[in-house]
Amino acid sequence: MMAAIYAKRANREVHILEKSSPGGRVRSTYQVENYLGFGRVNAEELVNNMVTHLEALQIKDDFATCKRVSKEGAFFLVETDQETYQADVVIVASGTRPKPISCPGEQAFLSRGVSYCAVCDGIFYEHQNVLVVGGGDSALEESIYLANLCRHVTIVHDMPFFTASQGVIERIKQYPNISTMNHHKVVSFLGDRTLKQVILESIEDQSQMTLDVQGAFIYAGNQPESHFLSDLPVLDAAGFVMVSTEMASAIPGLFAAGDVTKKDYRLIATAISDGAIAALSAVKYLDLVKGRR
After folding, report:
1. CATH number at residue 201
2. If the chain, 293 residues long, is cut into consecutive pieces of 10 residues, what is the mean pLDDT of each piece?
3. Which of 27, 58, 80, 238 has its CA 20 to 30 A from that of 94?
4. What is the pLDDT of residue 26?
5. ∠10-250-263 over CA atoms, to 5°?
6. What are the C-alpha distances in Å from 248 to residues 71, 75, 285, 293?
7. Final residue belonging to a domain, choices 185, 218, 251
8. CA 78, CA 87: separation in Å to the nearest integer?
9. CA nearest to 258, candidates 292, 230, 222, 290
10. CA gap 50, 56 in Å, rounded
11. Which of 218, 246, 276 is the last residue of a domain?
């Protein structure tokens, strides 16, 4: 959205292709902290303000799933499940999707006890026992959200310490219905039609225990949404787009921004910065290309 705004303000024709609701992964969290000018803000409120900004600039916005991006001469072809678009420049800001932990029962109980989004599915486990897998900010923040709905929340992390910011770690200590199990991992999800139990294993001695839970929320990292770029030499081994400090890829005219790029920090603040830089770089590129023509 930030890339679109900066490109539009530079008097360029801009078209956003979005496969789901605007805001991407921001909508999968309950609350955003440390966002300049807001401090702590409801994620949906923040996204709605962003969308209002887009609408005020009358930026074209279509819903479609991108299947393939290719370079045909001086133009790009963007093939989607709806139609094919032609563009002088493409800015990829497709973000990431949750990474599964790939253990038995995870896929079998997906949407029947296993979820990757507490805000989306937490309400279904009101007054029940749930598990959260992960030790980063997202895992702990969503555990706090779930603690206000569920009877008990158990956080399981395979490291001896959490990687979340200290402020969030201190906040979970304020909730008597949140317990933590570090240095453990989930090895299996069990149940009949719905999830009933998880089997946990100690990293230290490989001993196992069974925990009765009705829901499990997985926050084990992310993988890039970049499959549509697989024919282009712009991805690293993990599928992230490699870009310069100007957000330019190895293909002239193809830029990328946000979580889909190879970077150290994936935050809303860094994504917005990337989007602004990508748009300004794209405008500069178009001016140079048009000058040559």
Report:
1. 3.50.50.60
2. 96 92 76 81 88 91 94 94 95 93 94 90 94 94 95 96 93 96 96 96 96 96 94 95 97 96 88 97 92 55
3. 58
4. 81
5. 80
6. 15, 16, 10, 21
7. 218
8. 8
9. 222
10. 10
11. 218
